[in-house]
């Protein structure tokens, strides 16, 4: 349990009481426990690092339920960024290039990162300049949708460029 409740709060003579249905202020631990018992609620230690510790009189199970619910909502709101890959050859023609460009725009608008690469097979590694030109043209054409994370870099038989979506407001 992340919080100490009721009798599990030990070694404390006084507590700072906060809550909706109680008089706020510093009271003895026994008085705070009596108030909690009278209201049929729990005494929950909210902050143990201050002196005297801050305690709240609440229904602990209800408190945990709402806390889990908030965490679940926050998890649902947080977005996962996926990396979509787009593959070119060193001699990719205009039609294929435009088709892949259209897909990249859609990926970026959906909030995904794009990893574009030129794959060199066999002797096509001789055309490194053409591969770099394709990737730079690709980054230039996507300028209004994306920012470049990593400029074209040759890794083995692949020349890779990374693009991230621009934040739209």
Description:
The chain has 169 residues and is of the alpha/beta class. The protein is 34% helix and 30% strand. It contains four helices and eight strands. Strands 2-1-4-3 form a four-stranded mixed β-sheet. A four-stranded mixed β-sheet has the order 5-6-8-7, covered by helices on one side. Strand 5, helix 3 and strand 6 form a beta-alpha-beta unit. The protein starts with 13 loop residues before the first strand and ends with a strand.
What is the number of strand segments?
8
Percent helix range? 25-40%
Structural class: alpha/beta
Distance between the termini: 41 Å
Shape: rod-shaped
In short:
The protein is an alpha/beta fold. The chain is about 35% helix and about 30% strand.
Quick tags:
169 residues, alpha/beta, Ubiquitin-like (UB roll), Translation Initiation Factor IF3, 2 domains, four-stranded mixed beta sheet, 4 helices, 8 strands, rod-shaped
Topology at a glance:
Elements: E1 14-18, E2 25-28, H1 29-38, E3 42-47, E4 54-58, H2 60-77, E5 83-88, H3 94-109, E6 113-119, H4 128-141, E7 146-155, E8 158-165
């Amino acid at each position: 349990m992340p919080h100490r409740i009721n009798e599990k709060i030990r070694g404390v003579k006084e507590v700072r009481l906060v809550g909706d249905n109680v008089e706020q202020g510093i009271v003895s631990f026994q008085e705070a426990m009596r108030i909690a018992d009278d209201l049929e609620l729990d005494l929950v230690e909210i902050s143990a690092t201050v002196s005297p510790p801050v305690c709240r009189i609440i229904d602990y199970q209800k408190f945990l339920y709402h806390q889990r619910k908030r965490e679940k909502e926050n998890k649902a709101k947080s977005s996962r960024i996926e990396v979509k890959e787009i593959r070119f050859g060193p001699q990719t023609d205009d039609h294929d290039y435009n088709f892949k460009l259209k897909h990249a725009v859609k990926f970026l608008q959906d909030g995904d990162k794009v990893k574009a690469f030129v794959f060199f097979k066999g002797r096509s590694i001789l055309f490194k300049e053409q591969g770099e030109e394709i990737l730079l043209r690709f980054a230039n054409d996507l300028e209004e949708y994306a920012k470049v994370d990593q400029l074209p870099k040759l890794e083995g038989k692949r020349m890779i460029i990374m693009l991230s979506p621009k934040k739209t407001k």
